[in-house]
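Hello Y.,

Per our agreement to keep a running log of every chain we model this quarter, I'm adding this entry. I've kept the format consistent with earlier entries: sequence first, then predicted structure.
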Amino acid sequence: MSEKKSSLVVPLVGAAVVAAGGVGAYLFTKSGPGIITSGGGEVATAEVVPSNAFMAISISTDESAWAQLDQFQTPETKQLYDEAIAELKTEVFEESEFDFDADIKPWAGEVMIALLPPTAPQASLPGDPNDAISQVRYAPVIDGQLAQVETEAAEAEPNIMMVVEVKDEASASSFANKVKEKSGEPTKQTYQDYEISTYPDPDGGEPTNTVLLGDYLVISPQPGVLEQSIDTFKGGNSFASSIDAGTLGIDNPVIQVYIPNFSDSIAQIVALSPDSEDIPPQSLEQLQQIKSISMGVGIESEGIRLKAVTKLDPNALEAKYETAPGEVISQFPAETFALITGNNLKARWELFTKEAAKTPEIQEGLDQIRTQMQSALQLDLDQDIFGWMDGEFAIGSVANSEGILATFGAGMAMIFKTSDRPTAEATLAKLEELATTSGGISVSSRETDGGVTITEWTAPGAPGTLFGYSWYEQDSLVLAIGPLVETMATKPATPLSEDANYKTIISSLESSNIGYFYLDMEQAWSLLQAQIPPEEVTPEAQAMVNAIRGVGVTASMPDKTTSNFEFLLALKKANQ
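Predicted structure for the entry above:
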């Protein structure tokens, strides 16, 4: 495809960019634009997209969706938002000489951009210098296996199409007249009783082909794509039959992306990219276990939420992903500002090592780690480290400025539940023997006021405890840096699970999950800012960080064919 894009496609894509640039501008000022969509039901624009599309992104200019951002905007972030949108409009529309607010906004509604397989190229003549060079690569065959096939290295790119909902015909006609003034009269041809208009590009770029199908304007540089769209509109199989926007369950959605036939699409896209680095057969085989992916972003009362649903081959997972009970979270104090939880690291590790054996490079690196672990610490990585981690676990960062933690103001703590305490104790004993004989470390145990025994490592000249651990319950081990061991071994007066910020962020996520990630931005930024020279923190960065309450992430697997992912960027209300 030519690098010179059509004078019609650029402003219409730009319209989608500007309409959707609010999230990107609001959060990242000058970063790449986002895209938005209206309504949570089946996307109407997909009805004119052919069913063989690789993927599609639905976009809407619905202002009511963006109005939800107002509840989070402070004067500082509002100024950044307005400046970024103004700059984005200038960059997108300056060359085309169109005005978004006057020329496009009045008539353009929902937009969908889709990628389709390329049009089959004509065979080149023998001896043609542009004749493609055949390459051997791996691709799927009918029975789901991989085979070596020859593909041509000719330039072949996916076809692109855009579907724009026409909300106001008069305004759309006015825009079309402006396009004619800039590009000249279009040439016209008829297909299946529908008129396809081809607009030349005055700057020598690709022409633009358009057709009006009901309330939808279809645009593409490739006229064959419009013919496919017309066939679809007249009753052919459409992309809409392959997607279900409602499965995402997002309130006030602002982004929706659909890849309904992921494995086939990946294989075709790889085959179309002869100049890119080939995907190893092992990786392609894993990717082909993914059947479909749907993603969406919504602006809600808590902030900006992303959800993704991945459908998998029933035989894709050899191990069951168990739900994390969430019991260990209450052992962390409210001063915890970052936390990762999960369940059964042993099973995850065993699955990883099995998959690693299929890739020589990964297996080689893993073997090196095993060898180094054995020679340096006399530990078996598989048995002594991961072998006993078969219960729930959590890794957290906790604010504390005592002892060796005074410099940064925080330390790390880990909790592991296990059914194999003897192996865990044997591993700790090996580490203690090495530390005392080779590292000059002193190890001692004592009982806390709460009656829990803690073991502490100290060194001459060090300000207090360097490292410690405790079996605060029969099957529960806590490992912590510095004085945090006593804090973590004692039931906190205010646990993290009762912290208002944590509850606000985590309570809206799926509760039946395989683990959480949590970040309290205010606490984390306060500690990080103390380590950064003030002159390196711009007012813009400070304003953006101040607008974020925190981050919550979780994943769940309701069955072995469905994987759900959820991400929440929690934002502060404007009056907070």
